[in-house]
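Async update (no meeting this week)

Hi team, since we skipped the sync, here's where things stand on the single-chain job. The sequence we agreed to prioritize is pasted below, unchanged from the tracker. I ran it this morning and attached the output directly underneath so nobody has to dig for it. Comments welcome in thread, and please keep replies under the output.
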Amino acid sequence: MHSIRNLVTSSTKNSLSRTMSSLAPGHVLGGARWNYRILNPLEGDGTHTSAVFKAKVVPHENASNAPQWALIKTASPDDAVAIENLGRERDSYRLAGVASASCFRQMYEVIDDSTIALEWLDTTLAEIPYSPGMRTYALIAKFLGPTLSSCVVLGAQEHVNTVFPTGDRLNAQPSAMRAPEVFLGQACTEKSQVWAVAATVLCWIKPGVLGNCPYPFIGEAWCMAKIMRLFPDWELPASDTIKRETLQVALDSARQLKEEVEELNGISPLEEELNQVEMPQELRDLLRLMFITNPDKRPSASFVLASEEMRAFKRVVGE
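Output:
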């Protein structure tokens, strides 16, 4: 037993040492498909457990169709949560229809148990400021189609886009994109992801309208207070039906914040917020369709994709 413990400890240390040294800028990380020269680390939003790097693809001899860039994602071997999350992401590509679907970032290969190589995407929505115009509306349409399609593919496998199986993690969504029912302790489902997709678009159009708590310890209450401001018709459970004390405290705090904090008082109901921004009425209609606080009444991703609201918005952008 002592020798096994020493072997595991030594293996972990060696893996950690390899990970840190092999991800230094300029180092070439060896892969079975291609090699990858590490260029620089990428800064995230603080919600991810893995470290992410941009890399230049170095093709093997006689290799063809190699991309120019790749994204390298790695988890520290001594961080069990990071390893678990990376493993879930890796395993999601083994689900039926995922690896072959164009709506997902390609995974080039698994380099080892703590490192994967993925398709490099040049731009994210966060890097493009919202500006009213047909190019922007077309970009939103291009975003909505594949993202909702990914919900359909994963929903068929009882998974959601955050790489957690449906219902496996109550807090599977980032706070700004978290559906109301997930805040209330219900499982994250495909319909929760429909809300998250709409929230992603809204947060891009109007940054700060959801999530983004600037204060410690009250993040959950702050985010729920914003939802209460945007959706006054959000039906909250009666106090005597809530079994989790921390949830009851968060809800009570959210109700108080909603009324007393000047910063939150500037948030109007959704319809008014949408009318404050120049956009096609068809986009407003589409977002309204997806922003249903009651998950039982919220449409599925496949319903939204086939809806008249989606068809009308696509006509606006010439699709």
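Quick observations from my side:
Residues 1-18, 163-170 have pLDDT under 50 and may be disordered.
DSSP finds twelve helices and six strands in the chain.
Reply here if anything looks off.
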